Amino acid sequence: MKELELLIVGAGPAGISLASEARMVNIAANDILMIDKAKTHSWVIRSLYPDKKLVAANYKGLPAVCHGVMSLQDSTKGETISYLDEAIKKTGVAVNYSEEVLKIIPIGTKKDPLFEVVTTKDKYQTKIVVIAIGIFGRPNKPSYKLPRALKENVHFDVTSFQSKNENILVVGGGDSASEFAQYLIEMGHKVTLSYRQKDFSRMNSFNINALHKLEENEQIEILLKSNIKEVKISQNEYPLVCFNESHLGEHEYARIVYALGGSTPTNFLKSIGIKFENETPRLRECGETTIAGLYVTGDLLAGKRGGSIAQAFNASKTTMEKICHNYLECEIS
Q: 125, 1 in Cβ contact below 8 A?
């Protein structure tokens, strides 16, 4: 069983920056391990972000000021991935991909924490565990059943298919829904956007204005207060969308793209033994959970709506300082 000082669950911006901060305080690279169930790092950015989408370092207009080892301004998807690639190389820390954590078992004390981590491939013993998984690792799905025969026509991102000049329905009312719609229009598709509420209260002003402009130019059809009752298979073997509202009736689309957000991995966190208040993990200072030596960072630390890359970078710095102060013999500058 490999023994470690620090095991990081998740190889996105939060996990990578935490590894960078750990190396900065002189924790040896071979005493650190990152584990990710995806085939590569930064899965959300790679799979859910369109190539032309700007990866924003800021969040809701807050300044993208980074205080730690890593710093990133607004960048393209490619630039962001390249920056994170290089950051991993600089740390020298190993990343085990396609490996999922099944159990995190505390076997130490409050003063001297120790954990046994069981994965789909191995077992590890480590002094500190930091969970740096995002809140959108598993996209939310609609409440109604989707026919299996339509699996090639139903999507939860815009990077999993390549097509031209299709009639596509986007379902959702957040920023991702707007950005998916804008991207599909740029690619030459005819786009309809369906949202159940009367306005886009969850969307930032930039994306709202972009949608209104597209609507004025008759480049998109927006269906507010629209609720999908059922999705069936049309005679042409395409999705046939049945709306609850009688005036909307039924419409055939070549594809449906859902942008319904993601679910917090609550069950996984609860299975470890982390205590919750309602649906929020109970946390101490700098992301430490109710289990000594077990931390969360990144989106899980920022809350249900997630945070920015800059916030993740800064949280990694403060979390690592707290870990050094409480548990590990680190050299904090």
A: yes
Q: Which two tokens stand for residue 55?
A: 């990866």
Give 250-286 pLDDT, tens digit per residue: 999 999 999 987 666 777 788 888 888 776 788 888 8
C-alpha span between 192 and 194 (Å, rounded): 7
Whether residue 108 sits in one domain with residue 178? no
Task: Please tell me whether residue 182 adopts helix, strand or coil conformation.
Answer: helix
Quick check: 302 and 319 in contact, CB under 8 A? no
Query: In this structure, are 211 and 235 located in the same domain?
Result: yes
Would you say the C-alpha torsion 273, 277, 280, 285 has a positive or negative sign?
Answer: negative
Domain annotation covers residue 233 = yes
Q: Is residue 12 located within the same domain as residue 130?
A: yes
On whether both 125 and 172 belong to a single domain, the answer is no
Does the pLDDT at position 57 exceed 70?
Answer: no
pLDDT for res 60: 53
Which residue, among 318, 324, 328, 309, has the nearest Cα to 62 in the 3D structure? 309
Q: Is residue 332 part of a domain?
A: no
49 vs 76: CA distance, rounded Å: 10
At 332 the pLDDT is 75
272 Cβ partners below 8 Å, 6+ apart?
103, 104, 291, 294
> Does residue 158 sit in the same domain as residue 132?
no
Q: What is the pTM of this model?
A: 0.69
What is the rounded distance in angstroms from the CA atom of residue 317 to the CA atom of residue 57? 16
Residue 164 lies in a domain: yes
* DSSP H or E run through 239: strand 239-243
CATH number of residue 251's parent domain = 3.50.50.60
For residue 167, the enclosing domain spans 148-258
